[in-house]
Design goal:
By secondary structure, this protein is mainly alpha-helical. The protein is 68% helix and 2% strand. It has 19 helices and two strands. A two-stranded antiparallel sheet has the order 1-2. Helix 7 packs antiparallel against helix 9, helix 11 runs parallel beside helix 16 and helix 16 crosses helix 18.
């Protein structure tokens, strides 16, 4: 706070004390407003900066390009220097989005390269599922938390829970929803389709059967958190839940694991067992989101569904003979491509 001064209601920067660190509050608010709300709209951006200034005690806030260079030194690395504030506002998200996307992609690739039996097919599934559009181009702050928790996979398999939980707590600094992963780490441990996962399925059935009571309970639990009023919000927005077609696509690995459970039992692979259980949890949450909210509840399964892209290639490789494997894999590729085009058409991208 010592780097900033407020004089007669204006907000200025004490240049001598400015470092090259991006202020956390500015980074967070800029990212949220740019990506989740205003989509680069000049007026909304100015409101965001004004709101930020108010947190530092200033009533009125004005910023020139020189001050932005102090806060965002990366702007100096751009070949074509901005001529005005509007150009700067447009460039800021590009800088952050590229950096964050590179970090996220690196974490995903490292895990998939190590644990997937078919890395290229896993990568294809991630692209064809449109997760890269839904998360790396949108909801980028939450996906940063998602990829950090996903990077804990190796630690979890080695049962180094303390280090994994510490990293998940770090991830929760990006998005509080990351905390949901902690209890499910222990649910997913053990054999595929163990008693704990069966309890998750039973809880899902109860939640869907008594959906009114479930939403009331959820509203009460979230009352004193950052997600207060979330139930009334999705109801007022007439959020009709996650698309059933999307739920079915994401449920495919879990359904296959149930059909071919004997192959999982024979292999008893800790990695695949964990991925199976995480896929079941993902499907369960997606089913609940069908009957509640796609905007809120439907954003939680991503913490678990990434493991399905390790599970599905293993299932295709180990549950079918060579002849049927080629046919099923081809059908899966065509099916996911169909889902990809269906999704981007719905998104209005073509």
């Amino acid at each position: 706070m010592s780097r900033y001064t407020s004089s007669e209601g204006t907000f200025t920067i004490s240049g001598a004390d400015v470092t090259n660190d991006f202020p956390e509050e500015l980074v967070t608010m800029t990212e949220i407003l740019l990506h989740d709300s205003c989509n680069g709209d000049r007026e909304e951006l100015e409101k965001a900066y004004e709101k930020l200034a108010n947190t530092f005690g200033a009533v009125k806030y004005s910023m020139n390009i020189e001050e932005l260079y102090l806060l965002f030194p990366k702007l100096l690395d751009v070949e074509e220097q901005p001529a005005n504030l509007e150009d700067v506002y447009r460039m800021l998200p590009e800088i952050y989005f590229i950096i964050l996307a590179l970090i996220q992609a690196t974490l995903l690739i490292l895990v998939y390269r190590k644990y997937s039996p078919e890395f290229l097919f896993t990568f294809f599934l991630f692209i064809a599922s449109t997760d890269y559009i839904s998360w790396m181009f949108n909801g980028i702050r939450q996906f940063m938390a998602v990829t950090i928790t996903f990077a804990c996979f190796g630690l979890i398999l080695k049962k180094k829970y303390i280090v994994a939980i510490l990293l998940i707590l770090l991830a929760s600094r990006f998005h509080g929803s990351a905390l949901i992963v902690i209890p499910f780490l222990f649910v997913a441990q053990g054999k595929a389709w163990n008693k704990k996962t069966i309890l998750v399925i039973m809880a899902t059935i109860v939640a869907v059967t008594f959906i009114g009571s479930f939403t009331n309970l959820l509203d009460s639990v979230l009352a004193d958190t950052q997600y207060t009023n979330v139930v009334s919000d999705w109801q007022s927005w007439q959020d009709d839940g996650t698309n059933i077609f999307r739920v079915l696509v994401y449920a495919v690995p879990a359904i296959l694991s149930f059909i071919g459970k004997r192959y999982l039992d024979e292999a008893n692979n800790p990695c695949i067992n964990f991925c199976t259980n995480m896929s079941i949890i993902s499907t369960a949450i997606y089913v609940v989101s069908m009957f509640t909210s796609g905007i809120f509840i439907g954003r939680l399964p991503i913490y678990f569904s990434l493991y399905s892209y390790i599970l599905l290639p293993w299932e295709l490789k180990n549950m079918f003979n060579e002849k049927s494997k080629q046919f099923i894999t081809g059908a899966a590729v065509l099916g996911y491509l169909g889902f990809y085009f269906y999704s981007i058409i719905n998104m209005g991208m073509i």
